[in-house]
Amino acid sequence: MSSKGRSLGQRKEKMKAIVKVEHQRMIFSKYKQEIFKKAAELSTQCGVDIAVLLCSPQGNTVYSFGSPSVDSIINRFLGENRRLDALRRELRWLEKQVKAEKERGKALDVARKKWEDYINGLGWEELLQVISKLEGLKRNVHAELQKKDAVAASASASASMSSANYGSPTEVIDDEITDTDCSP
For residue 124, what are the CA distances in angstroms to 112, 117, 128, 134, 135? Predict the structure, then answer.
């Protein structure tokens, strides 16, 4: 159907900017009320939270409508953005970790290849010497771990005994100082 047969109210007019400032104000005021009314209806009928912000044509006034309130909706929106920002930062950190691990893996592959080449180039006697040195290294590492475990266990036991028997660590220190000062 062509636009010639329609009445004036049904004709589609092209959307264009309003040039006269007085007309802009009048249209803005009319549509502002309609937009806020539709937003209120949408909130009531559908149970949605909604916020509408409009700036006047001159840009000096901001009009707002919100259900339950503009502030609560904006704060919720900004809070979600903060969570997204935190997740993005964590993702970047994880990506750096993955990259570092890949580089570490490459370096380990190179070292393993060099080690294999070295071992494959050794004779029987040299292999026995390497095995002997590795077993000695294993014993030394095991002994050092046992020493560290013993020190940690004794420190833990003495800390639990001093707090159980004497109360706070300050009191234990005071008792020890008193005992040593009184000794002949």
Answer: 20, 15, 6, 15, 17
* pTM, rounded to two decimals: 0.39
With contact defined as beta carbons under 8 Å apart, do 172 and 159 qualify?
Answer: no
160 vs 167: CA distance, rounded Å: 10
Strands (E), the chain: 50-55, 62-67
- C-alpha span between 17 and 27 (Å, rounded): 11
Q: Could you read off the pLDDT tens digit of each residue along the chain, which spans 184 residues?
A: 455 566 666 777 788 888 888 888 888 888 999 999 999 999 999 989 899 999 887 778 888 899 888 888 888 877 777 788 888 899 999 999 999 999 999 999 999 999 898 888 889 899 899 899 999 999 999 999 999 998 888 887 777 665 555 544 444 444 444 334 443 3
Residue 169 CB contacts under 8 Å (≥ 6 apart), including other chains: 159, 162, 163
